[in-house]
Amino acid sequence: MTDPARGHSAATLVEAAGAPIDLDPEIRAAWPGARLVGRAFTVQGTGGDNLALHLAVTRAESGDVLVVDAGAAPHGHWGEVLTVAAQARGIAGLLIDGGVRDSAEMAALGFSVFSRRNAIRGTRKDFPGIFGRTVRVGGVLISPGDLIVGDADGVVAIPSAQVARVLDHADERVAQEQRHFERLRAGERTIDLYEFGAPYRQEV
Ligand SMILES: O=C([O-])CC(=O)C(=O)O
Ligand SMILES: [Mg+2]
């Protein structure tokens, strides 16, 4: 299987989907250059508590992305210890609506994390969480098995039933844009390529 989302950027995928699959732009990579690709293992947590994350690391499968609703709370729900534990189990990365800490260590380990913010405040360890339910992260409902792709521009969540269609459409878009780049380098204008209205295309 070619996947890891066929190398497509989050921006290409949101255009290809033709639907609002993009998360709140405040959900960002915890360190520059992080790229996240994988199927969602969903975790309903609660703000300021990270017991659910310690348990999720033991339940998720290799290649999964942990997708966590932590109530957008300004706590460090995840850090270096959980990163090392997750990597040892082959977990692909973390998407969390909440804060994380130890971003420099996550970068050094190459573990991709996308979060609402970096935050150093510690957490309780009381709420065991709920796994395998639809969760709301970055304003988008994400179900188990949905495809998550995150990069420097943001994050998309593609419903599992839509993945094949969106990836095929993304392949077509990239091929078409390559043809457009050739024409632009040969001197054509974007307003002609995209066939904007005639008034805008008058010779100047
Ligand atoms: O408090 C926690 O469990 C989170 C943390 O700092 C770590 O994973 O290093
Ligand atoms: Mg720590």
From TrEMBL:
A molecular-function term among this protein's GO annotations: oxaloacetate decarboxylase activity
GO biological process, one term: methylation
Protein keywords: Magnesium, Metal-binding, Methyltransferase, Transferase
Binding site for Mg(2+): 102
Top-level taxon of origin: Bacteria
Pfam families, per database record: RraA-like
InterPro entries on file: RraA/RraA-like, RraA/RraA-like_sf
Enzyme Commission number, as recorded: 4.1.1.112, 4.1.3.17
Required cofactor(s): Mg(2+); a divalent metal cation
SUPFAM superfamilies: RraA-like
Catalytic activity: 4-hydroxy-4-methyl-2-oxoglutarate = 2 pyruvate; oxaloacetate + H(+) = pyruvate + CO2
Root EC class: lyase
Binding site for substrate: 79-82, 101
Subunit comment: Homotrimer.
UniProt similarity note: Belongs to the class II aldolase/RraA-like family.
Protein role: Catalyzes the aldol cleavage of 4-hydroxy-4-methyl-2-oxoglutarate (HMG) into 2 molecules of pyruvate. Also contains a secondary oxaloacetate (OAA) decarboxylase activity due to the common pyruvate enolate transition state formed following C-C bond cleavage in the retro-aldol and decarboxylation reactions.
Protein name, entry field: Putative 4-hydroxy-4-methyl-2-oxoglutarate aldolase
